[in-house]
Amino acid sequence: MKVKMTDKKISIYRLKSEFFKALTHPTRLLIISNLLEEEQCVGSIENLLGLKQANVSQHLNILKKEGIVDYEIRGSKRCYYIIDPVRMKSIIEI
Q1: Which end of the chain, N or C, is more open, meaning fewer C-beta atoms within 10 Å of its C-beta?
Q2: What is the three-state SS of the chain?
Q3: What is residue 93's predicted lDDT score, i.e. its pLDDT?
Q4: What is the distance between the alpha carbons of residues 33 and 82, in angstroms, rounded to a whole number?
Q5: Is 53 within 8 Å of 9 (Cβ atoms)?
Q6: Cα 93 from Cα 72, distance rounded (Å)
Q7: What is the rounded CA–CA span in Å between residue 66 and residue 59?
Q8: Kind of pairing, strands 77-82 and 69-74?
Q9: Mean pLDDT over all residues of the chain?
């Protein structure tokens, strides 16, 4: 028996798909892995990965959009952290 997909179900699967797409880039996985160890400001992430600020910001924006990371402003710096580290750790350890 086939199950008909409702608009609500399709919408939920699209949201899940976008979440997992955010995890498919190796740079974003590295960022997540490092943020699981400690929160970091953008400059520290740049130095750690050897990337330009604009590139790091693009990756962080994708992770923020999907509810994976958030940030606090400290002076003139944005310092990022994992919103739900227990959940994220269990997902990336698969």
Answers
A1: N
A2: CCCCCCHHHHHHHHHHHHHHHHCCCHHHHHHHHHHHHCCEEHHHHHHHHCCCHHHHHHHHHHHHHCCCEEEEEECCEEEEEECCHHHHHHHHCC
A3: 84
A4: 10
A5: no
A6: 26
A7: 11
A8: antiparallel
A9: 93
Adjacent-strand bridge partners of 41 = 79
Taking the C-alpha atoms of residue 35 and residue 59, their distance in angstroms, rounded to an integer, is 13
Fold of the CATH domain 7-92: Arc Repressor Mutant, subunit A (1.10.10)
- 12-51 residue pLDDT tens: 999 999 999 999 999 999 999 999 999 999 999 999 999 9
Q: Are 57 and 70 in contact (CB under 8 A)?
A: no
Tokens representing residue 84 in the block: 């739900």
